[in-house]
Amino acid sequence: MTEVEIDVRGQTCPVPLVECRKALRKASSGDEVIVLGTHPASKKEIPMACESMGLEVLGIEEKDNEWKIRIKK
Amino acid sequence: MSKKAVIVVHSGDLDKIYSALIIGNGALAMGMEASMYFTFWGLQRLRKNGLDKGPLSKMHMLGLGKWMVSRRMKKANVAPLEKLMEDYKELGGRILACEMTMEIMGIKKEELHEEWIDDYGAVGTYVNEAKDASITLFI
What we know:
Chain A contains two helices and four strands. With 73 residues, chain A is an alpha+beta fold. By secondary structure, chain B is α/β, with parallel strands linked by helices.
């Protein structure tokens, strides 16, 4: 299992969602993808995308307008 | 079978090309398939170096409005259209070009970004793509 972290802090719609999808496509089954961002809507939409793709969100943390979402492929 | 979004890109206006590519990318990012059918003024945007050459649909003001909006978009860190197109292709998005428009407007294949285009066709191509799509839009 590998951990991939992508940093989309400061990026706006649709970049966080798109970069998250790109990382998930490249990851192997069992890998964890961690997305670090600041765009408020993406914090809700990345978990929505994961749900529609049947992927598990392991956790969402937020601190000082920055969020971190962990996804298991 | 995964769900699909099919977008007819009829307008060549800068803001509408943004909408179309953002929705296309969004659909792919949500795990759907996506196809964009470029026709009429939209097809002009597939010309080489033409993607961001459209006017604003409102308040273009001979280019002044476009310049102002472009500046604000850069400040807001909005991705350039070229990047959105690259992402769209990387995520497996399909681009279809309207052959009738090419004929009417005298556009040759070599004048277009052929590397983006998956297929050339007519209305049947669009209907065939759209018949099992869960989202279909005309922009």
